[in-house]
Amino acid sequence: MTANVVGMLRPRGAGGRGPDGPGAPRGGGEDPRSYRDRVEAALAAGRRFAGLHVGAGGDVVRTLLVAPDGTAELIGTSVDDGAVPSIVDLVPAATWDEREAWDRFGIAFDGHHPLRPLLDHSGSVSWTVPVLGADVYQVAVGPIHAGVIESGHFRFHLVGDRILQVDARLFYKHRGLEPAAENEPFDVGLAHAGRACAACTVSNSVAYATAWEQILGLVPTPGLARARTVLLELERVWSHLNDIAAICAGVGLAAGNARFADLTDRARRLNALLSGHRFAFGSVRIGRSEIEADTETVDGIRDGLIRIQEEFTRSWRELVFNPSFTDRMPGVGVVDAAQAVLLGTTGPAARAAGLAEDVRAASPGLSYPGFEAVVPTRADGDVRARFEQRSLELEQSFGLLLGLLDGPLESALAEPGAPSRQIGIGLVESPRGRTSCVVERAGARAAGSDGSRERSRDGSRDDEHRIARWRLRTGSYANWPSVAFAAAGNLLPDFPLINKSFELCYSCVDR
Amino acid sequence: MFTLLRDLRRIRRGLDLPGPARGGSLAVRHVDAGSCNGCEHELTLTSAPAYDLQRFGIGVVASPRHADVLFVTGAVTNRMREPLLTAYAAMPEPRRVAAVGDCALGCGVLGSASELAGPVEDLLPVDLRLPGCPPDPAAIAAALLTLIGQ
Ligand code: SF4
Predict the structure, then answer these.
(1) For residue A463, with 0-12 CB atoms within 10 Å meaning exposed, 13-18 middle and 19 or more buried, which class applies?
(2) What are A331-357's pLDDT values in tens digits?
(3) What are the structural domains, with CATH classification, of chain A?
(4) Is B89 in the A-facing interface, judged by CB distances under 8 Å?
(5) What ipTM does the predicted assembly reach?
(6) Which A residues, 189 through 248, put their C-beta within 8 Å of a C-beta on chain B?
(7) Is the CB of B73 within 6 Å of ligand 1?
(8) Is the Cβ pair B60, A148 closer than 8 Å?
(9) pLDDT score at A454
């Protein structure tokens, strides 16, 4: 989780483009000519694409790559005449990121053609992929959907009931959260990260807070790591229970939906017991935790969790011995391991395809000793595998939580212990997969090169703690292209089920 | 399956909501006008066994043409302004608008002013205001119950 930034981020004062240059890389520098080679070499070394952003001055584009051991690397390229080389042929997972950078900052990506609009709804350029042939017709759905669902638009290209291609047009809920917090103090950014999405609020907040702690050279103490891990796992528990309820709804199994909706409700009550809020809004702070729970409260949460676990186990058994339900899932909406690597699929969806990748396995700032990613025995990458994956991960999270809730929770701090940086990177395994938050701080760096400068932990208003640029790239953002890919070739009536088997958010994508 | 159904009956005991024996019904159309998904997640749970709004005759309907109430969540982004107004225009009279959650009420909204068209009140006549970030399922259930028969 703490991304040990190698190579492309230098510690403060270690040379580069000038005293205030944003995280200027060494080695290959920001030379556009070597950019693709550097990205290609990192990918060949087993690193995964985890986001692309435009630097604060608008003159540099940086690609974030993450190694299995949690090491994160930013590979930069300077913007030349409004353009940079595209990397989508090397790593298709970068497609949305490049489209977003074009829409928001007007940066062209040489070789990415056509560069279709993603965020831009103005309509001057076609956003759908043209699908031609006999009897092809389109079905347009949304932005308002028939149930209680977030707003977004899907364009299905069909012959009969068969989906040839589906294009998702999201960003109807674009609130401009990132620009709204630019030039503001770091705590303002935390509020924006937390409210980007209720379903990922803890994950997004921890990713953002971690990025700032890295900038400030702070290292979480074990107490802070424990508090955050409890919050993260509680978020995963209610979220995975909710996903199972949603999958039941996706096939019209009302009893299963109701049973798991109730368990979701009860898991959210545990959040409220711990943090005072059913989604744990405001529970994550930068450089500290203020969560306090005495033995009685912690025991109450433990007991609640054990009851949820018992009823989950029983209800799960009921579900999997219900053939009219389980028969709907095998072979539907497949993303296999090789496709998942190309698409940048992450989280339960990637593990369900057999990729044993989980940010928690390399999260030194959190409390996951000896953690290993789980994958299902039938890692077919279909709806059934994603469904079964939720159960495996729930059992894992119950185990983690019962281990962590072994005594009262006290407020805790992060402590100085690392060189400060101009750019920080937070990586978190959210319920929907790897979430990255890159923060570039504003202004001149403080004098004292010995790091002895007193650090302010609480919303200090000086430039040292202002945001120049930040980008939150959530597991949902990473996975939306996989939903479209998984749906192609399947039947339109199976789309709700395929969609629910990913159960992605729109709000933290749209921001 | 029996176990599941038996559980559902047991879960509801001990809640404050009134018994289901009342007249009237309410067809609700939800529009997410730019929420953080928190209000949606809580609205979804109003159909969970503990609250089970269907037993009061309250249901979420697929089209605004079938709806008595437009249940609006979120700050209303520029991009959702038109779809929201279109959904309202499609509703038959008498129709009601519920602005649900602090965002829909214009309280503590986060985002860039240039992207936001809300609060709901600026665009539609609001009949029911439900604060909270988000209001919990019990609060949503209680508020919707007050609309029956109005
Ligand atoms: S009121 Fe709160 S929970 Fe509801 S959409 Fe706004 S931020 Fe989210």
Answers:
(1) middle
(2) 999 999 999 999 999 999 999 999 999
(3) 3-110 (3.30.460), 137-169 (no CATH), 177-334+365-374+395-502 (1.10.645.10)
(4) no
(5) 0.89
(6) 191-192, 195-199, 201, 242
(7) yes
(8) yes
(9) 43
Cα→Cα distances A292→A194, A204, A276, A408, A416, Å: 20, 21, 11, 7, 23
- Cβ(A259)–Cβ(A266) under 8 Å? no
Q: Is the Cβ of A171 closer than 8 Å to some Cβ of chain B? A: yes
The interface residues of chain A toward chain B in range 294-313, judged by CB-CB distance below 8 A, are 311
Q: Which domains does chain B have, with CATH numbers?
A: 2-147 (3.40.50.12280)
Q: How far apart are CA B63 and CA A124, in angstroms?
A: 30
Q: Write the pLDDT tens digit of every residue in A162-204.
A: 999 999 999 999 999 999 999 999 999 999 999 999 999 999 9
Q: What is the pTM of this model?
A: 0.90
pLDDT at A340: 95
pLDDT per residue as tens digits for the range B21-64: 567 889 999 999 999 999 999 999 998 888 888 888 898 999 99
Q: Is some CB atom of chain A closer than 8 A to the CB atom of B83? A: yes
For residue B35, report the distance from its CA to the centre of ligand 1, in Å: 6
Instruction: Give the pLDDT score at A25.
Output: 36
Cβ(A28)–Cβ(A34) below 8 Å = yes
Nearest to A201 by CA among A366, A440, A431, A444: A431
Q: Which pLDDT does position B9 carry in this prediction?
A: 64
Burial class of residue A323 (count of CB atoms within 10 Å of its CB; 0-12, 13-18, 19+): exposed
Kindly indicate the confidence band of residue A128, based on its pLDDT and cuts at 50, 70 and 90. confident
B40 has a chain A CB within 8 A of its CB: yes
Is A174–B115 a contact, with Cβ atoms under 8 angstroms apart? yes
Answer yes or no: are the C-beta atoms of B141 and B53 closer than 8 Å. yes
A318 touching B (Cβ < 8 Å) = yes
- In chain B, residues with a C-beta closer than 8 Å to the C-beta of A144 are 31-32, 83, 87
| A476 contacts A96 by C-beta, under 8 angstroms | no
Q: Is B103 in the pocket of ligand 1 (CB under 6 A)?
A: yes
* Strand A423-430 relative to strand A433-441, pairing: antiparallel
Tens digit of each residue's pLDDT (9 = 90 or more) over A322-332: 888 888 998 99
Contact B133 CB / ligand 1 (< 6 Å): yes
